Each structure stands twice: as C-alpha cells, then as structure tokens.
C-alpha cells in the first residue's frame, strides 16, 4: 500500500479518532500511527499479516478498542498492558500461546476475544480484571480449567472447541458468571462439577458435543435448580 493511501487514512483518523486498515497485507504495525497516539480511540488492523506489535503500543493513552483479528501475532508486548482506557480487545485467529504477565493491568477491559489461538490454559491474569464481561477463549488448545477461575469476574465465558477434560469446581464460585459455553470438548459427565447446576449463578450452560448425551445431564442432582435460573433468565429477555 502506497504512502499516499496511508497518509489519507491518517488524516481521516486524526479527525475521527478511528483508524481502520483491514485486509491490506500489512506485515507490520504502521509506525506513523504513533503521531496520533494521544487521540486515537479505535484501531482496527484485522486481516493483515502483522507478526509483531512494537513497544510504542503503550503510547495510545486514550485507546478504547483494538482489533487485530486474523494476523500472525505470536506474542504481545508488555507495553500493551499500559493501555488504561482499553475496553475491547479482539485478537481472534492469531498464534498466541500466552498473555503478558502484566495483562491484569488492563483494568478497563470489558470484552476480550482470543478465539482461534494456541492457548493451553485459561490465563490467570484475567482474574485481576474487575470489569471483564465477555471472554472468548474458543478454538484454542485448553485442556483443563484451573482453580484460579473462581476469581473470574466475567458474565460470559466461551470455551467451545477446546480439549477440556477437567474443570475445577471453583468455576461455580465465579460471582457474575451467567453464561458458560463448553461445547465440543472432551468432557465426561463425571468431570462436570455438579455445583455448576446446584450452586452457581450460571443460567446458560452449553455442553453439546462432549462425551455424554445431553439427556444424562438432566438426571444430575441440581438440574432442577439450574432450570429455575435458566427459565427466570429467559423470561427476563422475552
């Protein structure tokens, strides 16, 4: 892409606070963007070929939304975690195996999408994020859900299409978790904590495509309590 085209995009972004450049085959983060570091609220560089995010990412002090879906990122810089205003982060379809240690500093984060990466566990850093509403970790390589998950503040957790065969009973203690998606994993019915049904806030549990028939779920102790929450929530939305 020519410099003149990039310049036009930058001029527009200066006025709108939005920089969108998707599907242009970019192999690196446009360094010229740092000129707008103090007024960009939205950056969307999805569907490119970006492999590395530079440390200058930390300078986008008013950035609220960052989308880098379908790039070639293998890691994120620690500097990304300085974005105190960031509310939405979309990184679907990259090659990420972990998150920076300081990821828990993204205190404004509400929506995090990491579908289609190479994560092997639910990152513990997510438990520090008090305003997190929606977490999408579908289509990764997660095999188990650890005890630390009990501190997760999310309302919706999507773990579809992983390799999960074990879930900590602590998931029942998530204070705000209403929607838990576990479709197409490797779960045996005996490995599904019954407290999810009998003693949690969860009002939508999606477990199709595991190693048991859904009708067996209905025989578990606590299923009637779960159905009460499910029905009450449904009424609220209709």
In brief, what are we looking at here?
With 238 residues, the protein is α/β, with parallel strands linked by helices. It folds into two domains: 1-99, Leucine-rich repeat, LRR (right-handed beta-alpha superhelix) (Alpha-Beta Horseshoe); 119-237, Ribonuclease Inhibitor (Leucine-rich repeat, LRR (right-handed beta-alpha superhelix)), CATH 3.80.10.10.
> Which sequence of SSEs, written as H and E, runs from N to C?
HEEEEEEEEEEHEHH
CATH top level class name of the largest domain: Alpha Beta
| Spatial strand sequence of the major β-sheet | 1-2-3-4-5-6-8-10-11
CA-based shape: elongated
Helicity range of the residues? 10-25%
Largest sheet entry: 9 strands, parallel
CATH topology of the largest domain: Leucine-rich repeat, LRR (right-handed beta-alpha superhelix)
Give the helix tally. Answer: 4
Number of domains: 2
Structural class: alpha/beta
Give the tally of β-strands: 11
Question: What's the end-to-end separation, in Å?
Answer: 48 Å
The rounded Rg comes to 20 Å
Beta-strand level of the residues, as a percent range? 5-15%
**What is the residue-mean pLDDT, rounded to a whole number?**
96
Uncertain residue ranges: none
Secondary-structure arrangement, i.e. CATH architecture of the largest domain: Alpha-Beta Horseshoe
């Amino acid at each position: 892409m020519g410099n003149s085209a990039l310049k036009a995009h930058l001029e527009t972004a200066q006025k709108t606070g939005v920089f969108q450049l998707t599907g242009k085959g970019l192999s690196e983060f446009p360094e010229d963007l740092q000129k707008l570091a103090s007024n960009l609220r939205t950056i969307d560089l999805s569907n490119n070929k970006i492999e590395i995010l530079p440390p200058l990412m930390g300078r986008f002090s008013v950035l609220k939304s960052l989308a880098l879906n379908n790039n070639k990122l293998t890691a994120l810089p620690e500097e990304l975690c300085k974005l105190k205003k960031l509310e939405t982060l979309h990184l679907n379809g990259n090659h990420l195996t972990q998150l920076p240690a300081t990821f828990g500093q993204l205190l404004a984060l509400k929506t995090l999408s990491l579908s289609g990466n190479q994560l092997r566990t639910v990152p513990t850093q997510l438990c520090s994020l008090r305003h997190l509403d929606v977490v999408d970790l579908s289509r990764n390589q997660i095999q188990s859900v650890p005890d630390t998950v009990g501190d997760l503040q999310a309302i919706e957790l999507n773990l579809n299409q992983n390799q999960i065969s074990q879930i900590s009973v602590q998931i029942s203690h998530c204070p705000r978790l209403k929607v838990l998606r576990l479709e197409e994993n490797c779960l045996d019915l005996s490995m599904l904590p019954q407290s999810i049904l009998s003693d949690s806030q969860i009002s939508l549990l999606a477990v199709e495509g595991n190693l048991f028939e859904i009708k067996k779920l209905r025989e578990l102790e606590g299923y009637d309590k779960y159905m009460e929450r499910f029905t009450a929530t449904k009424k609220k939305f209709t």
